[in-house]
Amino acid sequence: MVFSQTQPEDIYSTAHLTTMNPITFVWKLAIYLLIACLWGLFIWGFFGWNVSYQQVGDVPTTLVQSVYVFSEPLEIPSISADDTYMKVDLYATWDSPTVSLGIATELEVEKCPVGNQCTFSDLDFVAYGNNESLTWRFVSGSYNFVAGGYDEQGFINIDYNLDIVFAWPSLLIMGIACCIFTPILLWCSKCGSK
């Protein structure tokens, strides 16, 4: 007659698995999800994300010297408003070859209140384009589009995309946080299972 032998550690591991209560399971699951979120955010910071916006503005139908200041400021997500921790690259395109487009600070725009005949030479721009496109690395502040030239339709559509990635201080902080909290959370998950 042959008797099967079961190792003590096998009995322990089997009993441990079968007696895991729902609270312990939820605790472990929450810990692992938190670790995954930490590392996911860190990796996501390298690749970043893209946000798209559109503005429509009136322009003259014939060539004049004055410029048109868009009343709405550029939309920048609040999480990206500080260029110390985020890098934001703006890519703008518009649908009229006879229109030039610039980006000016709020202080510069105040030089051209409604009704004032400002020209491009009256303003200092942080970015400028005259080939239906412009690019610009965002710096903290408030900005408006300024259009010059004309279009037979009397308006232009501006499509602009923001490519947002973490700047190196953010990546450094996230990397340190991941390295510190991952072993702590793993230790906590073991404590919760006892």
Offer a concise description of the structure.
With 194 residues, the protein is an alpha+beta fold.
Structure report:
The chain is 35% helix and 29% strand. It is α+β, with helices and mostly antiparallel strands and 194 residues long. It has a domain at 50-167: Sandwich (Jelly Rolls). Strands 1-8-3-6 form a 4-stranded antiparallel beta sheet. Strands 2-7-4-5 form a 4-stranded antiparallel beta sheet. The chain is elongated. It starts with 7 loop residues before the first helix and ends with a helix.
Instruction: Report the order of strands and helices.
Output: HHEEEEHEEEEH
Task: Report the sheet-strand fraction.
Answer: 25-35%
Structural class: alpha+beta
Report the span from N to C terminus. 39 Å
Can you list the strand order of the major beta sheet?
1-8-3-6
Largest sheet: 4 strands, antiparallel
Question: What descriptors fit this protein?
Answer:
194 residues, Jelly Rolls, alpha+beta, elongated, single chain
What layout of secondary structure does this protein have?
Elements: H1 8-18, H2 22-47, E1 49-58, E2 67-69, E3 86-94, E4 99-105, H3 106-109, E5 127-129, E6 133-137, E7 143-149, E8 155-166, H4 168-193
Antiparallel strand pairs: 1-8, 2-7, 3-6, 3-8, 4-5, 4-7
